[in-house]
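Journal club side-thread
Mid-discussion, someone asked how the predicted structure for our own chain would compare to the paper's figures. Pasting it here so we can look after the session.
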Amino acid sequence: MNKENAGKKKNFFYLLFVKMFGSGKKKLSILDEEQVQSPLRSTIKQFRDNKLSMTGLIVFLLIFAFVFIGPYFFVQDLAFSETSQINVSPGLDLMKVPDELQGNVKYISVGAVFSVGVSNDGKVYVWGKPKISKTIDASSVPADMGKVVKVAAGYDHVLALDENGKVWAWGSNRLQQANVPSEVDRLNNIKDIAAGYQCSYVLTEDGYVYFFGNESVNDFKAKNDYQGQIDKIAVSSDASVGLTYDGKVVYLGKQTNAYTFIPEGMGKVVDIAATASTFAAVNEEGKVFVWGNITSYGEGNVPETESKIISLQGGRYHYTALTEKGDVLAWGANGYKQATVPGKVHNANIKAVYSGFYQNYAVTDEGKVLTWGLKGYLLGSDDLGRDILNRLINGGKMSMTIGAISVIISTVIGIIVGCISGFFGGKVDIVLQRIVEVISGLPFLPFAMILSALIGNNMTSNQKIFLIMIILGLLQWPSLSRLIRAQVLAEREKEFVTAARSIGVKRMKIVFRHIFPNVISVVIVTATLDFATCMLTEATLSYLGFGVPAPQPTWGNMLYGSNNSTVIQNYWWRWVFASIVLSVCVICINLIGDGLRDAIDPKSRER
C-alpha cells in the first residue's frame, strides 16, 4: 500500500513537472506539427526555412541599422566642403609613417593629402596619397638629390633643401611652383624653404625671401622693405609673414588686408606659424597672438597653460604648440580630432611637433613618431571633399525614408480603392477602375520628372523631398488596388460575408473588418516589393537630376554626382559604393518579398 502511495506521489510530481516545464512534450511529426500550428506560426516557420529569404532579411536589417543608427555617430554637415580634400581615394593611410623613419626623424612636413619626411641620414620618404593625378605623383622623389636637410610640402608639390644649399622641387608644376628659378638655383646660402598653395618660398641666410609660383592668388611683394632682415617665414593659403632678426613680425605682401593688422605690443617674437587664413606668433614670454581672417573654428581661442610655449605649428584651421616642459597643446578646428591631443602624446616626452592641414606628428626624445588627426577616408571623398561613408549612411537613411513613406501612401490608397471597388461593384467599381486605368496609363518616369520640374523649382530642399514622397505614393498604387479588388471579389461571395449581412453588419465594416484581414497577405507581399521599387524610382529620379536636391544626400543623387566619364574612369569610389549598397538593399527586399509570398501562399510553392 505504501508502495502504491509512493508511486502515485511520484507520478503526481512527474506530471506537475511536465505541466510546468513541458519536458515531457511528445515530439510531433511534420504533419502533426502543421495541424496544431496557427497560420502565423506556420508562415514564420516556412519563411525561416527559406535560407535565401532569411539571408536577405538579415542583410537588409544590417543595412537598415547601418543607415538609421549610423547618423548618430556620423553627423552630417550639409554646408561642409573642403577643397584640400577633393577626390581622396579610399584608405586610412594619411598618417602611416614609414618604419624607416621611426626613431630616425629629422623633419616632417604635411601636404594636403600626403606627408613628407626626411631622416637623419638625409633620405626622403613620402606617405599618404601622393598621387595627385595620372601624371603628377608627389612620391616621385628626384634620385640625385644627395643628403637632404629639410623638406616642405605644399598643396600638391614638394620642396627639398640639400646639405649644399640647393633647392629641389617636384610634384605639380602647373603654375611653375615646382620650377626653381635660375636666380634661386645659383644661390649657395639658402637656409629655409616653405611651400604653400601653388607657390614656393626660399629664405637665404642673409635674410632675403624669394618667391615663385602663382602670384595671382598669393600676395607677395618681392621688393618689400624688409628684405635682408627676415629670419623665418610663415605661409597661409594666400599670403606670408616674416619674422625679423630682432623679433618683429612683418607682412611680406603689397595689399592691405586682415593679415596686415599685426597685433601691437607683442614684444620680441620667437616663433611664427600660419593656418589657411590666420597667422600666429609667440613671444619670448610664451604668450600667443593670433590675427587674420579668424573663422568660427576657433583659431584665436588659445588655451591657457602653466608652462611657457616655445614653438608653434599651424594646420589647415588649427594650431599646435610645444611648451618648454615638452607638453603639447592644440586648438581650433576639431572635425577630425586634429585639435584633441591624445593621451599617448601627453604621457611622452616630446621634443618636436609637426602639423599641417589635418595631421599632426609628435616626435619623442627617443625619436618615435606619434600621430593624431585625419587618418583618411575609409570609402574616399567626393568632389567637395566630403566623406563618402558619411554621405552613404545619411543618404541611405533618406532613401529608405522616402521609399517607406511612399509605400505607406500608395498602400493606403490601394487598400481603400481596391476594397471599395471589389465589394460594392456596379457603378462604383466602373468609376474607380477607370481612374485606375488613367493613372496606370501615365508614363510614370516622364510624368514624375515633369511634375517635379514644374512644381519643385520654387521649393526648398525639404519641401521637394516631401513632394517626391507624395509623387511616388500617388502614382504607385494602381497595381495594388487591382490585386486587392480581385481578392475581395472572391471573398465577398463566401458564407461569412452572407452571415454578416444577414445580421445587419454595415457594409463598410464588412469590407474593412471581415474581408480585408483575409487579403492582407497580398498587401504585405506587394508593399514589400513596392518598397524596393520606390527606392529604385527615387534613385532614378535623383540620378536624372529630378529627385532630392543636393546637398542633401541620397543614394540616387550620389550617383548623379558621378554621372560623367572623368569620375567613372578616375574616381571609381564615388559611384561604386553607392551603387553596390543600393543594389544589395533592393535585392534583399525582393528576396524578402518572394519569401513572404511563398510562406503566405502555399500554392505558390507548388508552381
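Post-session note: The mean pLDDT is 87.
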